UniProtKB/TrEMBL annotation:
<keyword id="KW-0067">ATP-binding</keyword>
<dbReference type="GO" id="GO:0006436">
    <property type="term" value="P:tryptophanyl-tRNA aminoacylation"/>
</dbReference>
<keyword id="KW-0030">Aminoacyl-tRNA synthetase</keyword>
<feature type="binding site">
    <location>
        <position position="194"/>
    </location>
    <ligand>
        <name>ATP</name>
    </ligand>
</feature>
<feature type="binding site">
    <location>
        <position position="143"/>
    </location>
    <ligand>
        <name>L-tryptophan</name>
    </ligand>
</feature>
<dbReference type="InterPro" id="IPR014729">
    <property type="entry name" value="Rossmann-like_a/b/a_fold"/>
</dbReference>
<dbReference type="InterPro" id="IPR024109">
    <property type="entry name" value="Trp-tRNA-ligase_bac-type"/>
</dbReference>
<comment type="similarity">
    <text>Belongs to the class-I aminoacyl-tRNA synthetase family.</text>
</comment>
<feature type="binding site">
    <location>
        <begin position="155"/>
        <end position="157"/>
    </location>
    <ligand>
        <name>ATP</name>
    </ligand>
</feature>
<feature type="binding site">
    <location>
        <begin position="203"/>
        <end position="207"/>
    </location>
    <ligand>
        <name>ATP</name>
    </ligand>
</feature>
<dbReference type="InterPro" id="IPR002306">
    <property type="entry name" value="Trp-tRNA-ligase"/>
</dbReference>
<keyword id="KW-0648">Protein biosynthesis</keyword>
<dbReference type="InterPro" id="IPR002305">
    <property type="entry name" value="aa-tRNA-synth_Ic"/>
</dbReference>
<comment type="function">
    <text>Catalyzes the attachment of tryptophan to tRNA(Trp).</text>
</comment>
<feature type="binding site">
    <location>
        <begin position="26"/>
        <end position="27"/>
    </location>
    <ligand>
        <name>ATP</name>
    </ligand>
</feature>
<protein>
    <recommendedName>
        <fullName>Tryptophan--tRNA ligase</fullName>
        <ecNumber>6.1.1.2</ecNumber>
    </recommendedName>
</protein>
<dbReference type="Pfam" id="PF00579">
    <property type="entry name" value="tRNA-synt_1b"/>
</dbReference>
Length: 340
C-alpha cells in the first residue's frame, strides 16, 4: 500500500461580534484580513457570535440587523463561502448545548478569575451584570471545541479565555476520555494593531470616546478620508516610524502599509527621498483607504440587496457547521451519560 502523502489540512476558527453597525479598520487589519489569508491554507470556520452579544443588553432589531450586516461585511471583505464555512452562532444550537456542559466543568472560582468579566462587571455593577456575562468564556470555549480547530486567531484580550478553553479541553479529556483537540491561540503574521486617530496611544475601538478617532469600514469614503486627514501627528515634521515618540505618524504609516502591501521602510524611504511632509503622508493614506473602502462599500451593498443569497450562504454555513458540531456533542453526551 502506498503511504498517503495527503497532508491533513489544519482547521482554523474565529469569530467577531456583531456589536456595531460597521466594523472598523482595526477589526479588518488586525483580524479579518488574516482570516482571509488563512482561508487559502486552512479549513476555515468563521462565525458571528450573536449569542455572546446578548450577555449585555441588546435591541432585537439592532442585533438582527448587525448580524446580517456583519456577515455581509465579512463576505465583502473577502471571506469566500466556497472556501470557508461562514455561519451565525444562534443557527447552530450545539453551541448552547456544549456551553452548558463546559459550564458544569468550570469552577466558580476559575470563572471568577476571568479578567474581562471582572472589568466589565465592576464597571456595570453586580445588579446590571447578567449571569450570561459570567458564562461568556465557557460559551466561547464551546464555540472553539465544537470544531476541533488547531488554530484560533484572537486578539490579546482573548488570551485568558483561550487558556480556559485549553484547560477545559484537557479536563474533559482526562475525565471522560480523549475527545477534544487542545487548540492554540495565535496572532497571525501581518496582524496590525491600529490606534485611535485622535488619541494614537489608545487602540482603535468601537467604544472610543471621539468618533473622529475611528475609521468605520462602511462610512462614506469621503468621511474616512477626512478623518485620516485630521489625524493627530506631532510637531517634528519628519516622517519616520517610531511608535514611542511618534505614535500618530507611525499609525498612519502602518495603515498605509497594510492597505497597499508596501513595507513601512519602503514608504518612509520614498518620503525621505522626496522630502515629503505630513500632508503627503495623510493624502496618500487617505487615498489608499478610499481605494479600499469604495469597492468594499459597493460589494457590501450588493450583498445587502440580495437577502435570498445571504440566507443561502448562511443556511449552507449552518449546515456545514452542524455536520461537524453534532457528532461532537453526541459523543460528549454519550461519554457523560446524558441521553440524546
Ligand atoms: P472587538 O470588536 O474589540 O471584539 O475585536 C474584534 C477583533 O478585531 C479581535 O480579533 C480584535 O483583536 C481585533 N481588533 C479590534 N480592535 C483592533 C485594533 N485597534 N487593532 C487591531 N486589531 C483590533
Ligand atoms: N470573545 C471574542 C471577542 O470578543 C469573540 C468570540 C466568541 C470568539 N467566540 C469565539 C473568537 C471563538 C474566537 C473563537 O473578540
Amino acid at each position: 500500500m502506498v503511504m498517503s502523502d495527503e497532508v491533513t489540512v489544519q482547521r482554523v476558527l474565529s469569530g467577531i461580534q456583531p456589536t456595531a453597525d460597521s466594523y472598523h479598520l482595526g477589526n479588518y487589519l488586525g483580524a479579518v484580513k488574516q482570516w482571509i489569508d488563512l482561508q487559502n491554507g486552512y479549513d476555515a470556520f468563521y462565525f458571528i457570535p450573536n449569542l455572546h452579544a446578548i450577555t449585555v443588553d441588546q435591541d432585537p432589531v439592532e442585533l438582527r440587523d448587525r448580524t446580517t450586516a456583519g456577515v455581509a461585511q465579512l463576505l465583502a471583505l473577502g471571506i469566500d463561502p466556497e472556501k470557508s464555512t461562514i455561519f451565525v452562532q444562534s443557527q447552530v444550537p450545539q453551541h448552547a448545548e456544549l456551553a452548558w456542559v463546559l459550564t458544569c466543568l468550570t469552577g466558580f472560582g476559575e470563572a471568577s478569575r476571568m479578567t474581562q468579566f471582572k472589568d466589565k462587571s465592576t464597571k456595570r455593577g453586580a445588579d446590571r451584570t447578567s449571569a450570561g456575562l459570567f458564562m461568556y468564556p465557557m460559551l466561547m470555549a464551546a464555540d472553539i471545541l465544537l470544531y476541533s480547530p488547531q488554530l484560533v486567531p484572537v486578539g490579546e484580550d482573548q488570551r485568558q479565555h483561550l487558556e480556559l478553553t485549553r484547560n477545559l479541553a484537557e479536563r474533559f479529556n482526562s475525565r471522560f476520555g480523549e475527545t477534544f483537540v487542545v487548540p492554540d491561540g495565535f496572532i497571525p503574521e501581518g496582524a496590525a494593531k491600529i490606534y485611535d486617530l485622535q488619541e494614537p496611544t489608545a487602540k482603535m475601538s468601537k467604544s472610543g470616546t471621539n468618533p473622529k478617532g475611528i475609521v468605520n469600514l462602511l462610512d462614506a469614503p469621503k468621511t474616512s478620508a477626512k478623518r485620516i486627514k485630521s489625524a493627530v501627528t506631532d510637531n517634528e515634521g519628519v516622517i519616520r516610524f517610531d511608535r514611542e515618540n511618534k505614535p500618530g505618524v507611525s499609525n498612519l504609516l502602518v495603515i498605509q502599509s497594510a492597505l497597499t502591501g508596501r513595507p513601512v521602510d519602503e514608504i518612509v524611504a520614498d518620503y525621505d527621498a522626496a522630502g515629503a511632509q505630513y500632508g503627503a503622508l495623510k493624502t496618500d493614506t487617505a487615498a489608499a483607504l478610499e481605494a479600499f473602502t469604495t469597492p468594499l462599500k459597493q460589494r457590501y451593498d450588493e450583498f445587502m440587496a440580495d437577502p435570498a443569497e445571504l440566507k443561502r450562504i448562511l443556511d449552507r454555513g449552518a449546515e456545514k457547521a452542524a455536520a461537524v458540531a453534532e457528532p461532537l456533542v453526541a459523543d460528549v453526551y454519550a461519554k457523560m451519560g446524558l441521553l440524546r
